[in-house]
Amino acid sequence: MWRRRIPIAAIIAVIFALSTAYVAWALKDLPDPNSGLAAGDIIILDRKGQVIEDYSPAGHYHVNLTLDQMGKYAPAAVIAAEDRNFYHHGAIDLQATARAVWVDLTSGGLNQGGSTITQQLVKIQLLTPEKSLPRKVHEMVLAIGLEQRFSKDQILTMYLNRVYFGHGAYGIGAAARTYFNKDAKDLSPAQAAFLAGVIQAPSAYDPVLHYSNAKARQEYVLRGMVTTSALSQSEAGTASAEDIQKELHIGVSARQSKAPHFVDFVLTQLESMFGSAAVQQGGLVVHTTLDLNLQALAQQAVAQGVRDLHWANVNNGALLAADPKSGEVLAWVGSADYSNDSIGGQFDVVTAERQPGSSFKPYVYEAALRDHKITLATVLKDELTNFNGYTPHDFDNVSMGMIPARKALLFSRNIPAVQVAQMEGMNNVIDLAHQMGINSKLDPGLATAIGGSDVTLLEHVQGYQVFADQGQRVNLSWINSVDDSQGNVVYQRPGTDTKDVLTPAESYLITDVLRHYQYQWGFGWNRQMASKTGTSDNGHGQIPDSWVMAYNPDIVIGTWVGNTAPNGGGGHILAFGESVGSSLLRYFVNGLPNKMRDWYSTPTGITHGCGGSELFLVGTEHMCPSPSPSPSPSASPSALPSVLPTPSILPSPSPLPSPQPSPT
């Protein structure tokens, strides 16, 4: 060693020099606490590179305050939420870091947090969203440098003035105004804890969309405030009981967006992909699947459709459209007016759970057709029936007698649908619905067969996508790629995720029935679509929701209307799904590009049987009905032949001469 002392000393000197240079380089970007800290833009682009929204903090609300101007509770709540030992450790919390390293090592990824408020300030102000060991080291060096240069109070002030609280509010001063219309110093303990809880993930804890999650997070913060002696146990209990939801008066920011609900959803996905700090920092360019031309058409259709249905007490609507072959979302309208507080316009109905009514029935019939429990010619009984204690009724309280399955679905009869569900078994129906994309919990009771369990419009469109793509599930997607501020690709959507759920023949049977729906119910569409309405019932004959689902090989669409109010309130409507199809969705379908007119050819596995022209799956053509269906009574919807001719090619439909009874 002594003989090698000179080269060893040289190596040590080089390492020291490089380390010093690295630290000096790392610390050059430390923020100035006397200037307002700014986040970078998040630019959201559509599929053609057009700007959907430049999510710029400069266009949002930002207020700089001193620590004294923030009041007693807001700083204490943020410390309780984010770093309870902030004033008692250095830039790095060694215990929390060791715990995070252990979790990362045992889980095989960089998943655990453990960052101090100082480190979080570094993350959201200075670093890229990259997750790697070198980046973590860089973060620690900067945090140590920050604490050497500034006091704890200065660092906390910078953080509280910079951190994003959602809804366009940067800093606690802006957040207090945006959420509660008051100064930060006037926040109650409950309000301060509520805002502090949002910081961890402003989209995931958005109280407009996820109030229960935000409330649970507030409870965590209040417990932390007791732990840090900022509140007594009784004060925390009083704060917990405070009705925050009633106090919320969220002001709409000055953001300019061509698809605000879609952007909000994308931001939630970015938080999940990169962590909240990356979204807090900004500096991202997000290439999405949205088509701004179709988005504009969808927004116009929803707005005009809601106006048309004002007579039916409808004040809100939503629409989601996707490419069934690629799964790419093309249009996303979460409400009729994002800035209208009277309808709770910022709440995204696309992701809300609602009863789908009869639009759920195709899953029921598909399960039974696939499993050879029925054919489209199977005779079903449309008469008042007690199914082991459950007695469903039809929308018109009229019996159509014995009718084939095709007519039962086309006329959207409830009792035959429940009969089919009982024949197939509800567990089998639910299994198929889940395979097709319904992720919500479905009750195994027979009422689910006619739409008694809640689903979201997002997952319902996913389910109908399987019909639209001839049995193949292609998971819906909304982000193609993400670039950082230097133009480096930090995310690239993997190849299309597909799964064969049905055979083309199995899905074609449902499509062949639903292609007649628009003519039977007089939608007035200018191209061939397969469609199905849904109208929910609250059990007292009142309608909360009306839906229409529609598809062809080029597009799959779901739309909804209802009556909503702030904080989850709302009323009932008079519009059946038929009214939605002939107003709101007619505007959208008839405005679609001319190229979106493709239709399906008959796949292999389909045959004719029973001496007629009805379609059967190969192997079921001998399952012939007996007895023959009886004629429909005059009080029921105008009878349609049980076997309908197949149009050679998609003429524009002419409206029916007289209004038809509304389907469920």
Short description:
This protein is α+β, with helices and mostly antiparallel strands.
Q: Could you list some keywords that capture this structure?
A:
alpha+beta; five-stranded mixed β-sheet; 23 helices; 13% strand; disordered C terminus
Unreliable stretches: 627-662
Strand order, main sheet: write it out: 2-1-5-13-14
- Global shape: elongated
Number of β-strand runs: 20
Helix content: 25-40%
Please state the average pLDDT score: 86
Characterize the main sheet.
Answer: 5 strands, mixed
- SS summary, helix count: 23
Strand content: 5-15%
Radius of gyration: 29 Å
Question: Which class do the helix and strand fractions yield?
Answer: alpha+beta
Q: Between the first and last Cα atoms, what is the distance in angstroms?
A: 89 Å
Topology diagram in text:
Blueprint: H1 5-27, E1 42-45, E2 51-55, E3 61-62, H2 73-82, H3 94-107, H4 117-126, H5 133-149, H6 152-162, E4 169-170, H7 172-180, H8 189-198, H9 211-227, H10 233-241, H11 244-247, H12 260-274, H13 276-281, E5 284-288, H14 292-308, E6 316-322, E7 329-333, E8 353-354, H15 361-370, E9 379-382, E10 401-404, H16 405-410, H17 414-424, H18 426-436, E11 455-456, H19 457-468, E12 472-474, E13 479-483, E14 489-492, E15 498-500, H20 504-514, H21 517-520, E16 530-535, E17 545-552, E18 555-562, H22 577-581, H23 584-590, E19 606-608, E20 615-617
Helix pairs in contact: 2-8, 2-9, 4-5, 4-6, 8-9, 9-10, 14-23, 15-17, 15-18, 15-20, 18-19
